[in-house]
Amino acid sequence: MIGGSLLSKRNPAFSRLARYVKPYFPWVALTVFASLCVAAIDIVLGKAIERLAEETFGSPVAMIFMVLGMVLVGMPCKFMIKYASAKFSVSALKDLRNELVDRFGDLAMSSVERRFTGDLVSRLTNNTAVLQNFFIQHFANLFYLPVVFIGALTLLLLTSWKLVLSSLVLMPLGIVLAALLNKPIQSYSAQLQEKISELNVVAQDAIGGIAIVKAFNMQAAFLKKYTLIMDEVIRQGLRMEKRYAAITPIGVALFSTPIILVIAYGGYLIAQGELSAGGIVLFLYLITFVLQPISMLPTMISQVKEAAGAAQHLFEALDWPTERKGQMNLPVRPTAAPVRFEAVTFSYDGETKVLDRISFQVNEGETVAIVGGSGGGKSTLFKLLCGFYEPEPEGGIIEVFGRPLSDWDPAELRARLSLVSQESYLFPATIAENIGYGRTDATREEIVEAAKAAHAHEFIMQLPQGYETPLGERGGGLSGGQKQRISIARAFLKDTPLLLLDEPTSALDSHSEALVQSALKSMMGGRTVLVIAHRLSTVRQADRILVLDQGRIAESGTHDELLRHNGVYSKLYVQQFAAAEDEDTGGLDRSQAARRGERGLQAGVR
Ligand SMILES: Nc1ncnc2c1ncn2[C@@H]1O[C@H](COP(=O)(O)OP(=O)(O)OP(=O)(O)O)[C@@H](O)[C@H]1O
């Protein structure tokens, strides 16, 4: 069928889409069948009306009943087109959506990190909505329009080819002129849509960044921006309406004049005896079925293109690289060090080395602090350990619990480590659920135990709904410290032998900070910990400190050893940690630190 081939042969995206539609083939067949029935009824009705007009059917009453009968049969067919197309498209797109959501969970970090969340969500919602609309509104037309066009045109040519010829010249002319008149409206409408999206962006920014907007007293600036665009929207809208009002009568005239001319010509042909009265009735009824497909052709083409674009966009997302699956249940070497890096080199883009021949080992129960300037590669180290990224095969060896990273199934690896990041990500769910994500089979008692260990139980119990308190987006409704403690409780519940900790540096009040620190401290006990350290107290307590500088391990040792070494750490200490000196117990005083820092700088350390 023309429609079918238009959909599948030319477009790889459509033929791929067809795989999702295939399981619902009976509903597709029903849609096509009902469309063809409607096309047939429309044509046969023309013939019946002609006979009625010519009174050649015998009893006009019987004829009227027949016409009404056909109209009545047409109604369930039209219903069936909508219902069956909705049925197969909703089901097929549900399967596609499920696959996409499933795929999003498996996406490689490299597929996600550089994309906007909006892009992922838009593929899932907008693109599927475009396809849904296409299937329900336009799919049946791909079958109905060609059939009705060919049927009506054949019948009309048999009735009076002269009239067909004259109307095919005159009527499309009217349609084209009316469309030309409408063209500026299309561009006005596009501009209007653009302005409306601008308006939405401003509103979204103002709502999304409400805290900053308020803190910087930017409300007036935003309001001004908003009203300026709003004025433009109104101006544009009015301009469009004015144009509409002006051209509607002209459009009607342009559209109806050719029809009047054709009727007049038809009258002339009747007078000449070349056409019967029934013939002109048949003609007036059927000509719309010839003209409609012609006038709808551009719309149909653009609809097909739009749907193809949406499908392509969706399948692109399905083709984004996913994480590899590893072997499950491989034995762990219990005596091996929990973490070992050997000459690890890593680059995100294949060019710039973010880690350069890094080698170190973390033994069981050890706490190793990683320090270094911004962009030194600290977070990248964690991303590798979590299996979010992997070095190239020749990029060294990473072993976790004695097994090379490449052997691990990512999910199995992550089940053995907990990551507590600086920004505590909480989900729009209850507090209990947020902690429970640490281990999905945890009982309420275990969740409460974890919350107690993380010093979160007390404040949770003070909330009116306690553990059942629903959290807003990103944990809205809780303080920074409270959010941190919920994240720590989640990690407590997960109870893994290896802990990757990016120490929170967000401005917590001193009480909250003390609670978070003490929660972290109790979690670190008895575990192997790699901590990106931002606090002097943590660095001091670490068994070893690795100083990461521009992707290399510049120094390694204890706090005192490194200070004595008077190198990168010494300088970093002055820059980052000395300010906290007063708050910490028994360390260097600031002037001593500064002096050591100076020596570090003099020694030529960057
Ligand atoms: N997803 C990514 N794609 C490409 N480059 C990245 C990506 N993530 C980080 N980088 C780059 O890698 C380098 C190291 O970044 P990383 O986040 O590991 O540093 P860091 O030591 O944790 O820094 P900070 O202390 O500021 O968080 C930086 O130059 C950064 O721009």
From TrEMBL:
Pfam families: ABC_membrane, ABC_tran
ABC transporter domain ranges (all copies): 339-575
Alphabetical UniProt keywords: ATP-binding, Membrane, Nucleotide-binding, Transmembrane, Transmembrane helix, Transport
SMART domains in UniProt: AAA (SM00382)
InterPro entries in UniProt: AAA+_ATPase, ABC1_TM_dom, ABC1_TM_sf, ABC_transporter-like_ATP-bd, ABC_transporter-like_CS, P-loop_NTPase, Type_1_exporter
UniProt key word Protein biosynthesis: no
Region described as Disordered: 584-606
Annotated membrane topology: Multi-pass membrane protein
Subcellular location: Cell membrane
Protein's UniProt name: ABC transporter ATP-binding protein
Upper classification of the organism: Bacteria, Bacillati, Bacillota, Bacilli, Bacillales
